[in-house]
Amino acid sequence: MQFKRSEHLFKEAENVILGGVNSPSRSYKGVGGGSPVFMKKGSGSRFIDEDDNEYIDYLAAYGPIITGHAHPHITKAIQDAAADGVLYGTPTIHENHFAEKLRTAIPSLERVRFVNSGTEAVMTTIRVARGYTGRNKVIKFAGCYHGHSDLVLVAAGSGPATLGSPDSAGVTKNIAAEVITVPFNNLAAFEDAMTQWQDDIACVLVEPIVGNFGIVEPAPGFLEAVNQITHDAGALVVYDEVITAFRFTYGGAQDLLGVKPDLTAMGKIIGGGLPIGAYGGRKDIMESVAPLGPTYQAGTMSGNPASIRSGIACLEVLETPGTYEELDRLGAKLEDGIQQAIEQYQIPAVINRLKGAMTLYFDVTEVTHYDDADRSNGEKFGRFFKMMLQEGINLAPSKFEAWFLTTAHTDDDIDATIAAVHRVFSSGEF
Ligand code: PLP
């Protein structure tokens, strides 16, 4: 496979777009460098790049494209929205329909607000929690990505429960001092943090199923205990469901797991591929937001008809009976096939999978929290990524990202992917 045109386009991009990419995760820095592939067309489970190479896609745009590329029902909804005018700056009936649809699927969303990205949604839930509780500090879990607002670009310090340190230039030490980062699935560390800072904690920010150091499920009872301890301390539980909402079930991870937060942030899938975010939760808390209350949040593009109608159409596709069972069946088939190859070629690797999402980690035996994922072999993953690309399989260019299945993937796609993994593993390079 040749990537001549992509390489040329990347050089051109580097002269005008910072780093050649509009989000750092799109660069190939995490997989040993090189020019990222420029895609020109997506259809169903497949992509065509600028060199006319074809790929089976497991990136799914980092999660949103759960129905596959250019799903006709979503495409029609976007075309209809465009024909009716893309932005009004007034309320529309579509927002009512969509908010009601979300609340029916995720009952904890007693009141909802639409915003434009997952970052905005999470950022606002933190402001709402701070306004409502009158407290400052936030607890989050190591390795979980919550967007690029200042408060969540804070890394763990050393030790199991520590005040954070800035994870990006431009995030001040004062901001970092308001964030406490503890390991996921480590209840003792969480309890310690709560005991130490409890009257200062506004909220605990949780990805109920982690999607950002691969797919990692909560240990049995972990989320329930986090809820109890947080509420006992008078703080709020905020779920970041930007990846998980409608990923594993028609609803949130909270519905799948039977746990209930006070506030939820969402994005990705609920826009059907167009920019969107949403947050919502308990009515009494949400009523603290303007125009009803003193916590401010606004947006020119928020609730724009194209994103909302695209999101409604996406959920309509996902409502089809059997959708999530089929994603699980294909996910299991993919996992089994790769596991068989792991055993056949004695590759030191482990798979974490939940339904239609999975991650393959090299040189670790188990991944239950961030340190495990961090220890996995990135250099090997980089080689795997590039060899799979040559095989026509498009994965996310990072050892921490998930593979996402879509409703457009077929048994043939899975068979072809497993065959590619066999060829790559039999190379003797792993
Ligand atoms: N929260 C989680 C769990 C995410 O995975 C992401 C993005 O990957 C975000 C928040 C930020 O969302 P966005 O990129 O739409 O701003």
From TrEMBL:
Transmembrane segments: none annotated. Keywords: Aminotransferase, Cytoplasm, Isomerase, Porphyrin biosynthesis, Pyridoxal phosphate, Transferase. Coiled coil: none annotated. InterPro entries: 4pyrrol_synth_GluAld_NH2Trfase, Aminotrans_3, PyrdxlP-dep_Trfase, PyrdxlP-dep_Trfase_major, PyrdxlP-dep_Trfase_small. One of its GO terms (molecular function) is pyridoxal phosphate binding. It is an enzyme of class 5 (isomerase). GO terms for biological process: protoporphyrinogen IX biosynthetic process. Its cofactor is pyridoxal 5'-phosphate. The keyword Transferase applies. Its EC number is 5.4.3.8. It holds the Pfam family Aminotran_3. Homodimer. Belongs to the class-III pyridoxal-phosphate-dependent aminotransferase family. HemL subfamily. This is Glutamate-1-semialdehyde 2,1-aminomutase. It comes from Salisediminibacterium beveridgei.
